[in-house]
């Protein structure tokens, strides 16, 4: 077999969920499959050392002015020249004109459920493009992957015609997410480089509405209003201008000095961040998986997350669940965990066990099985 894998954005410096998934998949394929050939289609970017070619895995740089131009014009041209037998599109969308067998990873269908213009211009455009593209391409795909049982049922409610070709392949957790000893040099380097407080609440979010920054800030303000509550809130993926704008909107500028901003934190530094925090807050409004939940658990962080969408499934009974639409519930959960060391330790231990359920090796093995199935080898139609 000769397989093409779309990995358009893995060379960008600021990687997020879908970029991490495909990068981990390719790295596992390089270890697991020494027989078949692979061509990885990418857009050039500053982090071009994150993936190296191996004997049977080659990287093809594809130019393009915009995401749609890259995907609808440049990529099909390179695919035609490459001689691949199958194309794996890894980030929800695909070329509308199908010319060969196709597997699509459909992480979620949030953009089909509603269109919100409260995000950035880039996020808004991306949602509109997916809203136009996804219904057209999934009907033509030979097989489709999604990343949780919740999302599978959600997709089938909206597109029941996909029954029989929609498979669940759970995301994994990288070995870099682990527990640290207090004297670990990597841990101490990150703590020093980012000037981390001795104890803090950690929130990994951004300006995307679903990340629930407003709910977190309201909950944190409520926490600070109680006597003796002084733990700082460390926030990643947010800048000072964005934070100040949200705090002004919420009339909470008085808490700004209690918040420490990290900006974008590279993947390699996140484990030490998780390991250093007192609590990891992830009360997202909607996730198809929620990788930070299990990544934080693998590092020994107690997790507070949402009781909505895929998050209870991924948390596996090892996190404190809250209604993310109710800031007072988030606040109460924070106070409960911080006041009860026994509960905190219990969440840590359960989280470590839960994180063990998720493996990028298993993820890649199932994807390779699907490649074989599409090209003729028999593989079960339902995978969990």
Descriptive report:
The protein is an alpha/beta fold and 384 residues long. The chain has two domains: 187 residues, Glycogen Phosphorylase B (Rossmann fold, 3-Layer(aba) Sandwich), CATH 3.40.50.2000; 171 residues, 3-Layer(aba) Sandwich (Rossmann fold). Helix content is 42%, strand content 14%. It has 14 helices and 13 strands. A seven-stranded parallel sheet has the order 3-2-1-4-5-6-7, sandwiched between helices. Helix 7 links the parallel strand 8 and strand 9. Helix 6 crosses helix 9, helix 7 packs across helix 12 and helix 10 packs across helix 13. The two termini are 24 Å apart.
In CATH's first tier, which class of the largest domain applies?
Answer: Alpha Beta
Number of DSSP strand runs: 13
Tell me the Rg in angstroms: 21 Å
Topology-level CATH name of the largest domain = Rossmann fold
* Head-to-tail CA distance between termini: 24 Å
Main sheet: strands, sense, barrel: 7 strands, parallel
Strand order of the largest sheet: 3-2-1-4-5-6-7
Return the CATH architecture of the largest domain: 3-Layer(aba) Sandwich
Low-confidence sequence ranges: 378-384
Average pLDDT: 93
Q: How are helices and strands ordered from N to C? A: EHEEHEEHHEHEHEHEHEHEHEHEHHH
CATH superfamily of the largest domain: Glycogen Phosphorylase B
Class based on secondary structure composition and strand pairing: alpha/beta
Q: Count every helix, treating DSSP H or I runs of 4 or more residues as helices.
A: 14
The number of domains: 2
Question: Which shape, going by the Cα principal axes?
Answer: globular
Strand content: 5-15%
Helix content: 40-55%
């Amino acid at each position: 077999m000769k397989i093409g894998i779309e990995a358009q954005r893995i060379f960008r410096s600021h990687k997020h969920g879908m970029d991490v998934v495909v990068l981990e998949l390719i790295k596992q394929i390089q270890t697991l499959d020494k027989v078949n050939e692979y061509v990885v289609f990418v857009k050039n970017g500053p982090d071009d050392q994150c993936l190296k070619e191996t004997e049977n895995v080659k990287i093809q740089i594809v130019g393009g002015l915009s995401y749609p131009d890259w995907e609808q014009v440049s990529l099909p041209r390179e695919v035609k020249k490459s001689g691949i037998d199958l194309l794996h599109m890894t980030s929800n969308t695909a070329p509308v004109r199908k010319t060969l067998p196709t597997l699509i990873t459909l992480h979620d269908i949030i953009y089909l459920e509603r269109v919100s213009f409260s995000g950035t211009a880039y996020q808004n455009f991306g949602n509109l493009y997916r809203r136009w593209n996804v219904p057209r391409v999934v009907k033509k795909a030979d097989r489709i992957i999604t990343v949780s049982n919740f999302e599978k049922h959600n997709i089938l409610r909206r597109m029941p015609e996909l029954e029989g070709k929609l498979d669940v392949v759970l995301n994994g957790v990288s070995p870099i997410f682990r527990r640290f000893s207090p004297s670990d040099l990597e841990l101490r380097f990150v703590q020093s480089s980012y000037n981390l407080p001795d104890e803090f609440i950690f929130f990994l979010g951004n300006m995307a509405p679903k990340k629930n920054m407003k709910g977190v800030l309201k909950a944190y303000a409520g926490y600070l209003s109680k006597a003796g509550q002084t733990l700082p809130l460390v926030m990643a993926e947010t800048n000072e201008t964005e934070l100040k704008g949200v705090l002004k909107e919420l009339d909470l500028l008085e808490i700004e000095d209690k918040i420490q901003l990290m900006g974008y934190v590279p993947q390699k530094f996140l484990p030490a961040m998780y390991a250093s925090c007192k609590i990891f807050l992830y009360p997202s409004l909607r996730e198809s998986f929620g990788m930070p939940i299990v990544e934080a658990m693998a590092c020994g962080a107690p997790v507070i997350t949402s009781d909505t969408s895929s998050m209870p499934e991924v948390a596996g009974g090892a996190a404190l669940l809250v209604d993310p639409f109710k800031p007072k519930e988030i606040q109460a959960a924070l106070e409960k965990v911080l006041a009860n060391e026994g509960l905190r330790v219990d969440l840590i231990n359960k989280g470590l066990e839960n994180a063990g359920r998720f493996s990028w090796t298993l993820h890649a093995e199932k994807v390779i099985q699907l490649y074989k199935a599409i090209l003729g080898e028999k593989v079960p139609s339902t995978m969990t």
